[in-house]
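Field log, afternoon session.

UNIT: design team B
ACTIVITY: writing a sequence onto a fixed backbone
BACKBONE:
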């Protein structure tokens, strides 16, 4: 099974009902997510771009990048966005033993918590959010993480921004064509995805803002 279609089929969502694929709502809300950062220049560019639309988002950070760029990480929090765990080294669940996978998540969590402001801060969202790299996680790994209090956040819309073989126009169409109230859209704050992401994100923000949508961070 592959998780790379732009829109996740209903059958996949039904197979994994304990994962969060979208957030049911009648309101015009979209949940933008950014994986694989923080990354120098790119993450700050996203923060500035989001700010111009008063948009909030969720950043699934790689622990190793949090460790390398703590100031960038703190900027995300300062700007009022939510943070999620994306493992320490971006490991593939299907190829990693459960104990090793849990230790990857724990390592990333340690760096995230170290940089986190004191509790009761109005800006930091305390919910433990986790997104498996590549969308690949075994049931055993997911169950263990859920027991530790993590919510497994998947998505219902992929922009496929990381693929340099698709045009900026296709990336934009990917991001808007199937998006609905409560959709979770995936972008990346990585070097690889930056060309398509930087071309697409401002257009997505404008397109949906013009239709009365707001962009919120995931708070469960
Ligand atoms: Zn990733």
């Amino acid at each position: 099974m592959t998780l790379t279609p732009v829109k996740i089929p209903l059958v996949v969502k039904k197979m994994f009902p304990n994962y969060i694929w979208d957030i049911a709502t009648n309101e015009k809300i979209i949940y933008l997510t950014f994986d694989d950062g923080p990354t120098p220049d790119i993450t700050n560019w996203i923060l500035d771009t989001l700010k111009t639309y008063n948009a909030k988002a969720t950043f699934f950070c790689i622990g190793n990048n949090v460790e390398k760029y703590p100031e960038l990480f703190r900027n995300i929090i300062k700007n009022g966005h939510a943070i999620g765990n994306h493992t320490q080294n971006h490991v593939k669940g299907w190829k990693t033993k459960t104990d090793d996978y849990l230790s990857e998540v724990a390592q990333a969590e340690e760096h995230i918590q170290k940089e986190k402001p004191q509790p009761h801060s109005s800006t930091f969202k305390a919910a433990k959010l986790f997104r498996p790299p590549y969308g690949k996680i075994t049931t055993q790994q997911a169950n263990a993480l859920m027991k530790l209090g993590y919510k497994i956040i998947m998505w219902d819309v992929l922009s496929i921004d990381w693929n340099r073989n698709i045009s900026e126009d296709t990336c934009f169409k990917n991001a808007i064509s199937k998006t609905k109230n409560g959709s979770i859209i995936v972008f990346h704050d990585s070097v690889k995805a930056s060309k398509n992401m930087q071309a697409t994100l401002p257009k997505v923000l404008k397109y949906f803002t013009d239709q009365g949508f707001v962009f919120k961070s995931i708070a469960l």
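LOG NOTE: The longest helix spans residues 98-115.
NEXT ACTIVITY: expression trials, pending approval
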